[in-house]
Design goal:
Blueprint: E1 2-7, E2 18-22, H1 31-39, H2 43-49, E3 60-64, E4 73-78, H3 87-103, E5 108-111, H4 123-137, E6 156-161, H5 164-192, H6 200-214, E7 217-221, H7 223-229, H8 232-238, E8 246-253, E9 262-267, E10 269-273, H9 293-308, E11 313-323, E12 335-337, E13 343-345, H10 353-366, E14 372-377, H11 382-387, E15 392-396, H12 399-411, E16 416-418, E17 436-437, H13 445-454, E18 462-466, E19 472-473, E20 483-484, H14 489-498
Parallel strand pairs: 1-6, 2-4, 2-5, 5-6, 9-11, 9-14, 10-11, 13-17, 14-18, 15-16
Antiparallel strand pairs: 3-4, 7-8, 8-11, 12-13, 15-18, 19-20
Helix pairs in contact: 3-4, 4-5, 5-9, 6-9, 8-10, 9-14, 10-13, 12-14
């Protein structure tokens, strides 16, 4: 897809369609919409007066110009209420509008520069939001389809700006948006790929490619390396699978003057989760191919970070394995020893994500020098009960760091909600035979999972993102499409950009 910004008169551009917007609570037309209405002899205002166009978010009205201007069509898009219009509204608008046009075979179009008339939104941010929304909203995963006749991809998007100084700023934003969206798309591709193709070894291959293209440092540990380091929790989960486990570490060194300031991104990479001996029900188990989305989000974020080149050091760590009920699989009641020497009684083998993350977190701090970190995991079904698919659950040990992550996520539309971490919840993890159990019973399951992980932070500021409810969509909406959301890649990238020196 080609996205470019031009300076000129949108009325003079020959294009299959122009996207313009209309607020729900604005009685008057404004800007380019008003100009187009005048050229079209009041067609838009007449439809507005007749209540055929209301301006509500997600509403689209396609008007054929019949030769009155160079463009063949005008797509009037509802922007919702003006007070609610922000960068996320731009992303959603472009995702929905570009899909709407694609279903009608329109793969090339122009758009007005949504948001630049605002005194709050910056042109560079508007350009980025338009690019992200368009690319992510038209994302398709067609790798396994033999008939792709009706799956045309959007080919060309032109943002027409009335002023050259605005065009230059928006073009910078578009470039950033393309890089970020491509990182999200990589995460989506990995998460949507079936587990017979996306194995731990394949994740390591993809990470190696990302490292090569982005000039990143990379370390890949195999089972023998893990055993030497005392990663009994990670190795224990991997025992039931014929696929060898890997621990992937990607290092971006963008700030050599602050070698001890290193942002850590730790992503759960279970490429398929049967539950192990504590076998999951068969219903919807196919979705467990996405149990590595925490890991793919880290790899996608590292791809974008290496291209954006912020002044910060970032290390991404992905422990990856299958969780299978093989003949050598760990059993309920087994006791394993993690890298920090804590012993864990495995009560439920389906609580495997926290086990592999525990060793990865300790490794990130002790061996790679991470100074503060975020872990990302499809960790608990309990978070779906709490938050559904709307928000990401947030937990942590440092309020300032928690607040920063939540604000960053919410600003980018990857909505988050913080949970309590009272010490009392840790009592549920007490074991009769080991230092701790890997589950704490039915109550507060997401919190006790986070309390488990808190034992492996090595004292650095840490935030845990439980994405089990938000990692996939069952229908298209805004810049999300059915399947993997690729979240929270953009939050991880924005954290790195905000933390740069």
């Amino acid at each position: 897809m080609e996205i470019k910004v031009v300076t000129g008169d949108i009325l003079e551009i020959n294009t299959p369609a122009i996207i313009v917007g209309l607020y729900e609570d604005s009685k008057e037309l404004y800007g380019i919409t008003k100009i187009l209405d005048e050229v079209m002899d009041g067609a838009i205002s007449q439809l507005r007066n007749d209540q055929e166009i209301k301006g509500v978010s997600g509403e689209f009205t396609l008007i054929h110009t019949l030769g009155r201007i160079a463009a063949q069509r005008i797509l009037v898009s509802g922007l919702g209420r003006k007070d609610n219009f922000d960068l996320n509204a731009i992303r959603a608008l472009m995702g929905n509008a570009s899909r709407y046009l694609r279903t009608r075979g329109i793969l090339s179009f122009c758009t007005a520069p949504h948001g630049i008339d605002s005194v709050i939104l910056k042109p560079v941010d508007c350009g980025q939001a338009i690019a992200e929304g368009t690319i992510l909203g038209t994302y398709q995963f067609q790798n396994y389809r033999t008939n792709k006749e009706n799956s045309g991809n959007t080919e060309k998007v032109t943002i027409v700006s009335p002023k050259s100084d605005l065009s230059a700023s928006m073009a910078i934003g578009v470039g950033q948006g393309e890089i970020i969206a491509n990182g999200v798309a990589l995460s989506r591709d990995m998460s949507n790929t079936p587990s017979n193709d996306l194995t731990p070894s394949k994740m390591a291959e993809i990470a190696t490619m990302v490292a090569r293209e982005g000039n990143l440092g990379i370390v890949i540990l195999d089972r023998t390396d893990m055993e030497k380091l005392g990663m009994g929790a990670l190795v224990g989960v991997a025992r039931g699978s014929h696929q060898p486990p890997k621990l992937i570490a990607l290092e971006y060194k963008g700030d050599p003057d602050r070698p001890k300031h290193v942002l850590g991104l730790i992503g759960k990479g279970v490429t398929f989760d049967t539950g192990g001996i504590s076998l999951k029900p068969a219903l919807n188990m196919e979705n467990m191919k996405g149990d590595m989305t925490g890991g793919s989000s880290v790899i996608g974020a590292m791809k974008a970070i290496s291209a954006l080149k912020p002044k910060i050091n970032v290390t991404g760590v992905v422990p990856t394995t299958e969780n299978m009920p093989g003949g050598d699989a760990q059993r309920p009641g087994d006791i394993v020893r993690a890298m920090n020497d804590k012993t864990i009684e495995v009560i439920n083998t389906d609580a495997e994500g926290r086990l592999i993350l525990s060793d990865a977190m300790v490794y990130a701090v002790r061996k790679l020098g991470v100074s503060h970190m975020v872990d990302i995991a499809t960790l608990t079904g309990a978070i779906i009960v709490s938050l559904g698919s709307v928000r990401i659950g947030v937990f942590g040990n440092n309020q300032e760091w928690i607040d920063q992550v939540v604000q960053t996520g919410n600003d980018g539309g990857e909505r988050m909600w913080p949970f309590p971490m009272d010490d009392d919840y840790g009592d549920q993890l007490k074991s009769t035979f080991a230092d701790m159990m890997n589950v704490g019973g039915k109550e507060a399951g997401s919190i006790t999972a986070a309390k488990f992980l808190s034992e492996f932070t090595e004292g650095v500021p840490w935030v845990h993102l439980d994405i089990a409810g938000s990692y996939r969509m069952v229908s298209d909406k805004g810049w999300h499409v059915k399947g993997s959301t690729g979240g929270p890649v953009r939050t991880l990238i924005n954290l790195a950009l905000a933390d740069s020196g």
